[in-house]
Amino acid sequence: MTVIWLTGLSSAGKSTLGCELHDRLRTMGHKVEMLDGDVVRKHLCKDLGFTKKDREENIRRIGFVAELLAKNGIIVIVSAISPYRAMRDEVRSRLPCFIEVYVNAPLAVCEGRDVKGLYQKARAGELQEFTGVSDPYEPPTEPEVECRTDLESVDQSVRKILEHVLVRLAPRP
């Protein structure tokens, strides 16, 4: 089955798009689960920090759970920053139907949307190794879908993702 991996900076819109996509796919009658990076960190990865090694382990764990769900016929939506290209590629290599969605918004836009104040804390030096500020984000080089959330509405972005997903889900003759 399919894993839809939404990657992008904090506050780019990954969770917003993921939730809307989840609701639409469920309404269409699909079995679907969502793995949100913040929720997974709180429950499955609370022992991990934000070093490069810990971030990589976080993505491995999310990828493992996504793989288990997908093997059981569930469409899995992952919304996680997943800053390192190599880790996303590692997860992709284990999944027959991996759809990478680059949720792309400029850093300034993400900072403006930041309701948790994380960027402000990172800029003040209160948060170390914060993606996009003091730790790198490696954008996808060839995502299956790119959503420009600074230029598109939620509906436009979700429709773009759905078009790609539904083609992948269509029975092959």
Please describe what this structure looks like.
The protein is α/β, with parallel strands linked by helices and 173 residues long. The chain contains seven helices and five strands. The chain has a five-stranded parallel sheet with strand order 2-3-1-4-5, with helices on both faces. The protein is globular and about 55 Å long. The model has no long low-confidence stretch (mean pLDDT 91).
Short description:
The protein is of the alpha/beta class and 173 residues long.
Outline the secondary-structure elements.
Layout: E1 3-7, H1 14-27, E2 32-36, H2 37-43, H3 52-71, E3 75-79, H4 85-94, E4 98-104, H5 107-113, H6 118-123, E5 145-148, H7 154-169
Parallel strand pairs: 1-3, 1-4, 2-3, 4-5
The tally of strands reads 5
What's the average pLDDT? 91
Rg to the nearest angstrom? 16 Å
Tell me the strand order in the biggest sheet. Answer: 2-3-1-4-5
Number of domains: 1
Hey, roughly how much beta strand do the residues contain? 15-25%
CATH architectural group? 3-Layer(aba) Sandwich
For the record, give the distance between the C-alpha atoms at the N and C termini, rounded to a whole number: 17 Å
Task: Report the helical percentage.
Answer: 40-55%
CATH class group: Alpha Beta
Tell me the number of helical segments per DSSP (H or I, 4 or more residues long): 7
* Overall geometry: globular
Give the SSE order as H and E letters: EHEHHEHEHHEH
Low-confidence stretches: none
Largest β sheet strand count, sense and barrel closure: 5 strands, parallel
What is the CATH homologous superfamily assignment? Answer: P-loop containing nucleotide triphosphate hydrolases
CATH third-tier fold name: Rossmann fold
Q: Give the structural class.
A: alpha/beta
